[in-house]
Amino acid sequence: MIAPRDSRPASLNRSFIDFIKATRLGMWLGAAVVLWFFQILVTYALLKPKNLTVRGSTHDILLMLAEVYIIAAGVVAILSARGKSLPLRQVFLGKLSWFSAIAVGMLGMITLAPWVLALLLNTILRTTIPLMVRPWPFGVSAVGIVLVVVLTPLAEELLFRGWLQSRLQERWGIWGALLAGGLFAAAHGASGLSIVPFVIVVTWMRYRYGSLLATVVAHMTNNGLLVLLFFLAGKRL
Q1: How far apart are CA 133 and CA 236, in angstroms?
Q2: Hey, is 169 helix, strand or coil?
Q3: What is the largest CA-CA distance in the chain?
Q4: Containing domain of residue 204, as a range?
Q5: Residue 1, in any domain of the structure
Q6: pLDDT tens profile 169-213
Q7: What's the domain count of the chain?
Q8: Residues 6+ apart with CB under 8 A from 137
Q9: CA geometry: angle at 143 spanning 139 and 147, to 5°?
Q10: Is the dihedral of CA 76, 12, 93, 34 positive or negative?
Q11: Are 206 and 215 in contact (CB under 8 A)?
């Protein structure tokens, strides 16, 4: 374990707030979002779709680009932190070590064991395909697995648990953290209610331990289990 001088949630969150301000992470994330919307406008202009929904491979590529842009913004912020005397280890690990952060992320999913087992059972019996995974792109392919298990967790955790929860938690404490979790669920549309147990777990991890790595590992573990559901059900993502 790392033993920071003050391991209370507010102090742990302060480390990430300092990182956000010093590296202008919000500006880089904003630029990523603007670039993505510009990409969407260009796509609409070129394809001239008959409705406002871009489907198929075009939708898949746009989704992947959004996540790549957000991750790139994070990488730029990390690179710009060099020479600024920021405790990057504490910024991303909170009060945990590398091993502890990975263990907490994976073991945290045990709290969802009854929920995950119910999904697995329903899927094996083919009684239902969970709503949360119906709209996912690319199918069960190498690209789809990389997108769902790697890119999506990295991008969403950086944006929601890293930037948004840190900002709201700084202002309203635990209530700000819960608000960030609610906005994360809402961003998932119709599947938002079905991911509430997962949202509670990762929001608590970030609040209690201050570790972004733990939430990334938990998110990757969760999405990996959902990909397994599709292999078992023989369905498209």
Answers
A1: 9
A2: helix
A3: 59
A4: 9-233
A5: no
A6: 999 999 999 999 999 999 887 777 778 888 999 999 999 999 999
A7: 1
A8: 59, 60, 63, 64, 144, 147, 237
A9: 90
A10: negative
A11: yes
